[in-house]
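Per-record layout

source: Streptomyces echinoruber
name: 8-oxo-dGTP diphosphatase
length: 127
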Amino acid sequence: MVAAGVIVQGRRLLVVSKRAAPDVFYLPGGKPDPGETPEAALTRELGEELGVRPVAPRLLMRVEARAALEGVPLRLTVFTTDIDGVPRPAAELAHLRWITGTGDGLRLSPALGEHILPRLRADGLLD
């Protein structure tokens, strides 16, 4: 299970890539530690990866897809959230981008490209 954050500002979605695969973009977030709730994992991961804290996270959806690199089944708990500052990539992150609902030609994780972006477009959150 992975907790992931949908952060939309100016009708653009924040996506990140990791140093291990800098050409594949995901939602920020990560796996909960033992005993950690998805919300707590999101808070910890956004702090470690981007130096921000989520503000008023709300459950958007649960997604089952295949992991972009490993190709194994992956379950995501996806939250929409505001953040308390300007995100800056840290920890294992390579890049940070703000994208439109088209994905802007980036290579997106299966969960993001096949499930989450279509939902955000259908909800009118992205251009």
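summary: The helical segments are 38-50, 110-122. The two ends are 29 Å apart (CA to CA).
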